């Protein structure tokens, strides 16, 4: 088994931004803000955040802010909670939350809460428990949780719980490891984990580990590196991570590296991308892989960044 | 250098014009795909009717459209630039009075480019949003229905597109109050999901959409869906989403049934009892026919747990608590005996080591342990007797010695039972 090829991953992440020559890379420009979060958080976990010019990034982020206070995925696009959290997270990485008008961002977010406590992703009204997480995590980082109705938000998330202990997009929706991370993360941040049946959910999550050691996101699916993050972080938050085989999972993630050109893919031998590179490295961080910064399972930011947000001042 | 880039920009615009012309000339295109130019030849041989359009970049016939992978990058760039330019113009001048026709011209330009763009980049949210803005301003049913066509077209090349599914829900919510054919729409949507799920296996977004539709269905529709999806599920036993859809339908039926019991408009369990019994029998038959399928065993967990909760705890009334309890225990006892029998019959590993049989043994053992744990955790339901630690241990040892969490759970269940027994003896 190889080791984590840190320098190659750093090189890969720095190169992703410069690639404008293929349809596949250009066609995702509408979610560049998420890409920035994945890439930069990975760099920070690897201890290499200083490899690029933070001013340039911050200027670009602020150009993506809409007059409503929300952030878009790129300049000139419409705002959405998906990109608003990423923007705030990246500013937190650089310790630059002070460039924000926090109340303005918080007003945008709390304005998207619905009567039943759920959140819409943007003004067009689609509801999803993921959006509840985005709102709660973002307001938490901004120290503005009091701007929303936490009790109603928590009750809505609890209403998305299924008989198998997992959570879906809306009440009655199928359990999915990504949704579970969002719901458990939101409940953890708001101190409401008593809504989770930890043994039942832990059981479902542990059954995501397949023979190769990798994790899938739903029954009968192939393993995928991104679930290393979603399943693991959930297991940590509900205190059941000792129930899976960590060594096998570390091996699975390391086997998904492109050891020549850097980057991590969904499964061994597939093409790498920045999304899976982040989830692979973040997963290894949760598994306490040597040389990586620790990551906070609920806020999805390095622990030192989270400590700076909550314990400084 | 500058001349070269101007030429290529000019070419891209021609490309976009050609693309948009095809879209305009055939508004009934219902399928689009990106293909390598070498495949154009094969397409021509297979096609039956006359060619609608063919050059080196596009191919269109029988309301199907193919785009050459060679032109995707310049075409996307041209469509995006044209759209972004058009909406910035629209935002600047769109509020002018319509008299000049200028505003409406800007609007139709932006709509045209947004369509081209979405056929190349399915999750370009700003383009979907712009369409929502225009359509909601006009409030014409026909325009809303056109949006359903466009998103279906996008789903034909990108069946997992989150934004395309979301656009459909937005349209349906918008017309929900105005359109008497809402039930028809729910029915047609459900068919669309099934068609897409056939081509795109285990598509979470598609099935999530179908689950969402359930709240718009009548009771008759829900029963019809339960009947209809059974066939599909039987042919796709590894697709957990379809079994979850059945869970959703069954819970809705159960919910309505409980309301009726509360209102006093019904006092019989027969119909719902029968639905559950049929599903349990059918699931058992599938488990035996398709060896080692996780989704089937997980569906059984749901069926059995809700059976125990609803059909063994509602026997008798609360005034007769003690009598009720004993009949519950008896009921659970018989039920669990049957389940143990099923699990045991699925736990024989033949001499060859086919993975499917090993999986079957593991799923049956974890199924029994899961059910035992749920019962022992539920308030008001007591295990008929202390689970046989020895036999569960043997089963787990045989089936999945590496799943350490199961041992943890097993120890806790038997520990809890010991405590209860001690209390009872005092």
From TrEMBL, chain A:
<comment type="subunit">
    <text>Heterotrimer composed of the alpha subunit RGTA, the beta subunit RGTB and REP; within this trimer, RGTA and RGTB form the catalytic component, while REP mediates peptide substrate binding.</text>
</comment>
<comment type="function">
    <text>Required for male fertility and root tip growth.</text>
</comment>
<dbReference type="InterPro" id="IPR008930">
    <property type="entry name" value="Terpenoid_cyclase/PrenylTrfase"/>
</dbReference>
<keyword id="KW-0862">Zinc</keyword>
<feature type="domain" description="Prenyltransferase alpha-alpha toroid">
    <location>
        <begin position="5"/>
        <end position="300"/>
    </location>
</feature>
<dbReference type="GO" id="GO:0005968">
    <property type="term" value="C:Rab-protein geranylgeranyltransferase complex"/>
</dbReference>
<keyword id="KW-0637">Prenyltransferase</keyword>
<dbReference type="GO" id="GO:0048364">
    <property type="term" value="P:root development"/>
</dbReference>
<dbReference type="InterPro" id="IPR001330">
    <property type="entry name" value="Prenyltrans"/>
</dbReference>
<protein>
    <recommendedName>
        <fullName>Geranylgeranyl transferase type-2 subunit beta</fullName>
        <ecNumber>2.5.1.60</ecNumber>
    </recommendedName>
</protein>
<dbReference type="Pfam" id="PF00432">
    <property type="entry name" value="Prenyltrans"/>
</dbReference>
<dbReference type="GO" id="GO:0004663">
    <property type="term" value="F:Rab geranylgeranyltransferase activity"/>
</dbReference>
<dbReference type="GO" id="GO:0048229">
    <property type="term" value="P:gametophyte development"/>
</dbReference>
<dbReference type="InterPro" id="IPR026873">
    <property type="entry name" value="Ptb1"/>
</dbReference>
<keyword id="KW-0479">Metal-binding</keyword>
<comment type="function">
    <text>Catalyzes the transfer of a geranylgeranyl moiety from geranylgeranyl diphosphate to both cysteines of proteins with the C-terminal sequence -XXCC, -XCXC and -CCXX.</text>
</comment>
<keyword id="KW-0808">Transferase</keyword>
<dbReference type="GO" id="GO:0046872">
    <property type="term" value="F:metal ion binding"/>
</dbReference>
<keyword id="KW-0677">Repeat</keyword>
<comment type="similarity">
    <text>Belongs to the protein prenyltransferase subunit beta family.</text>
</comment>
<dbReference type="InterPro" id="IPR045089">
    <property type="entry name" value="PGGT1B-like"/>
</dbReference>
UniProtKB/TrEMBL annotation, chain B:
<dbReference type="Pfam" id="PF01239">
    <property type="entry name" value="PPTA"/>
</dbReference>
<protein>
    <submittedName>
        <fullName>Uncharacterized protein</fullName>
    </submittedName>
</protein>
<dbReference type="GO" id="GO:0004662">
    <property type="term" value="F:CAAX-protein geranylgeranyltransferase activity"/>
</dbReference>
<dbReference type="GO" id="GO:0004660">
    <property type="term" value="F:protein farnesyltransferase activity"/>
</dbReference>
<comment type="similarity">
    <text>Belongs to the protein prenyltransferase subunit alpha family.</text>
</comment>
<dbReference type="InterPro" id="IPR002088">
    <property type="entry name" value="Prenyl_trans_a"/>
</dbReference>
<dbReference type="GO" id="GO:0005965">
    <property type="term" value="C:protein farnesyltransferase complex"/>
</dbReference>
<dbReference type="GO" id="GO:0005953">
    <property type="term" value="C:CAAX-protein geranylgeranyltransferase complex"/>
</dbReference>
<keyword id="KW-0808">Transferase</keyword>
<keyword id="KW-0677">Repeat</keyword>
<keyword id="KW-0637">Prenyltransferase</keyword>
């Amino acid at each position: 088994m190889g080791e984590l090829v840190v320098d190659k991953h750093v090189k890969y992440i720095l190169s992703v931004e410069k690639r404008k020559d293929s349809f596949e890379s250009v066609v995702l420009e509408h979610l560049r803000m998420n890409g920035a979060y994945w890439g930069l958080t990975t760099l920070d976990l690897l201890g290499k955040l200083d490899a690029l010019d933070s001013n340039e990034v911050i200027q670009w982020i602020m150009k993506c802010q809409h007059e409503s206070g929300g952030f878009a995925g790129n300049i000139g696009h419409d705002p959405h909670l998906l990109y608003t959290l990423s923007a705030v997270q990246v500013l937190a990485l650089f310790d630059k939350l002070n460039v924000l008008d926090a109340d303005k961002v918080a007003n945008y977010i709390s304005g998207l809460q619905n009567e039943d406590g759920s959140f819409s992703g943007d003004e067009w009204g689609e509801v999803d428990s993921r959006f509840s997480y985005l709102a709660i995590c973002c307001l938490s980082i901004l120290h503005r949780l009091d701007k929303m109705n936490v009790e109603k938000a928590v009750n809505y998330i609890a209403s998305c719980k299924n008989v198998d202990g997992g959570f879906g997009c809306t009440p009655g929706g199928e359990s999915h490891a990504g949704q579970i991370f969002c719901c458990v993360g939101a409940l953890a941040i708001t101190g409401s984990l008593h809504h989770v049946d930890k043994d039942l959910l832990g059981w479902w999550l542990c059954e995501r580990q397949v023979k190769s050691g990798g994790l899938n996101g739903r029954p009968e699916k192939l393993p995928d590196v991104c679930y290393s993050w979603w399943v693991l972080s959930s297991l940590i938050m509900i205190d059941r991570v000792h129930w899976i085989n960590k060594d096998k999972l570390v091996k699975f993630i390391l086997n998904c590296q492109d050891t020549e050109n850097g980057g991590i893919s969904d499964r061994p031998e597939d093409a790498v991308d920045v999304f899976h590179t982040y989830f692979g490295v973040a997963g290894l961080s949760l598994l306490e892989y040597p040389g990586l910064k620790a990551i906070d399972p609920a806020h999805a930011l390095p622990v030192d960044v989270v400590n700076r947000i909550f314990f400084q001042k | 250098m500058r001349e070269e880039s101007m030429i290529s920009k000019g070419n891209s615009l021609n490309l976009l014009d050609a693309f948009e012309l095809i879209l305009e000339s055939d508004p009934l295109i219902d399928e689009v795909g990106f293909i390598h130019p070498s495949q154009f030849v094969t397409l021509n041989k297979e096609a039956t009717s006359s060619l609608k359009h063919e050059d080196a970049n596009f191919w269109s016939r029988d309301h199907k459209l193919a785009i050459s992978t060679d032109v995707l990058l310049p075409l996307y760039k041209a469509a995006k630039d044209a759209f972004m330019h058009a909406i910035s113009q629209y935002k600047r001048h769109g509020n002018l009075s319509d008299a000049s026709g200028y505003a409406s011209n800007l609007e139709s330009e932006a709509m045209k480019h947004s369509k081209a763009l979405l056929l190349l980049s399915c999750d370009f949210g700003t383009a979907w949003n712009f369409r929502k803005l225009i359509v909601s301003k006009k409030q014409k049913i026909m325009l809303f229905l056109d949006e359903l066509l466009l998103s279906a077209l996008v789903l034909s090349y990108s069946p997992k597109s989150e934004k395309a599914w979301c656009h459909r829900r937005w349209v349906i919510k918008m017309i929900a109050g105005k359109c008497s054919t809402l039930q028809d729409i729910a029915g047609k949507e459900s068919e669309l999901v099934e068609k897409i799920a056939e081509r795109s296996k285990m598509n979470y977004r598609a099935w999530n959409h179908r689950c969402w539709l359930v709240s718009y269905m009548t009771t008759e529709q829900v029963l019809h869906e339960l009947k209809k999806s059974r066939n599909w599920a039987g042919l796709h036993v590894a697709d957990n989403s379809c079994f979850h859809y059945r869970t959703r339908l069954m819970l809705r039926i159960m919910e309505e049934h409980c309301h009726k019991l509360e209102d006093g408009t019904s006092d019989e369990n027969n119909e719902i009892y029968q639905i559950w019994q049929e599903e349990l029998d059918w699931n058992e038959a599938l488990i035996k026919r398709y060896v080692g399928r996780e989704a089937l065993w997980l569906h059984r967990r749901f069926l059995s747990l809700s059976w125990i909760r609803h059909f063994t705890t509602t026997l008798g009334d609360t005034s007769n608590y003690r009598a009720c309890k004993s009949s519950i225990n008896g009921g659970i006892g018989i039920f669990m005996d049957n389940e143990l029998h099923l699990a045991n019959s699925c736990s024989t590993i033949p001499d060859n080591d086919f993975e499917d049989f090993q999986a079957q043994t593991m799923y049956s053992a974890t199924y029994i342990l899961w059910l035992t744990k749920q019962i022992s955790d539920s308030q008001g339901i007591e295990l008929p007797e202390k689970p046989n630690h020895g036999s569960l241990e043997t089963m787990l040892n045989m089936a999945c010695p590496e799943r350490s969490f199961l041992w943890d759970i097993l120890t806790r269940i038997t520990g809890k039972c010991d405590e209860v027994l001690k209390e009872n003896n005092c």
